[in-house]
Amino acid sequence: MSVRPILIHPDPRLKKRADTVIQVTDEVRLQAADMLDTMYDAPGIGLAAPQIGVMNRVIVMDCVKKEGEAPRPMVLLNPEVVWSSDETSIYDEGCLSIPEQYGEVERPAVVTVRWMDLDGGAQEETFEELWATCVQHEIDHLNGKLFIDYLKPLRRQMITRKMVKLKREMART
Predict the structure, then answer these.
(1) Dihedral sign for Cα atoms in the order 121, 33, 7, 40
(2) Which CATH architecture has domain 12-172?
(3) Is there a catalytic annotation at residue 138?
(4) Which of 20, 59, 60, 168 is the most buried (most CB within 10 A)?
(5) What's the pTM value of the predicted model, to 2 decimals?
(6) Average pLDDT for consecutive 10-residue bins of the chain (173 residues)?
(7) 12 burial via Cβ count (<10 Å: 0-12, 13-18, 19+)
(8) 27, 87, 129, 138: the active-site residue
């Protein structure tokens, strides 16, 4: 297992739709393990494959934040929202590909997601609260959408300029 570099916005790969995972291979299992290591190292609560430059539909997440509570690492292949509540919630979202920038995003408060697990089996679960926000945020990544795409254009442009500056500074070191 290894920690992989996380792409920083703007990067064209972050705006592309990821490809469906056809078959669970050892390569996909290794990728998922690396993604969990990368997410925990960052530290974050979710990570999508395009964020590490891999263009397939794999997300990982673990929204357990309480001290002493056992972690719940999840790997979802080809996740899709199959139901969402009419009720919404607003969360101040951030992103590992847009470090230290946050914005309020309104999403369905409860969603049911169907995905394939690492054994190739079908899974389905209903998520709420932070888990619901996280899974929707990561699925957006698979579709080439970032949380800043929900923000007003001026705020989005301001954040993008900050990320361009950050990338320039990172390239110098």
Answers:
(1) positive
(2) Alpha-Beta Complex (3.90)
(3) yes
(4) 59
(5) 0.96
(6) 92 98 97 97 96 98 90 97 98 96 97 98 97 98 98 96 94 86
(7) exposed
(8) 138
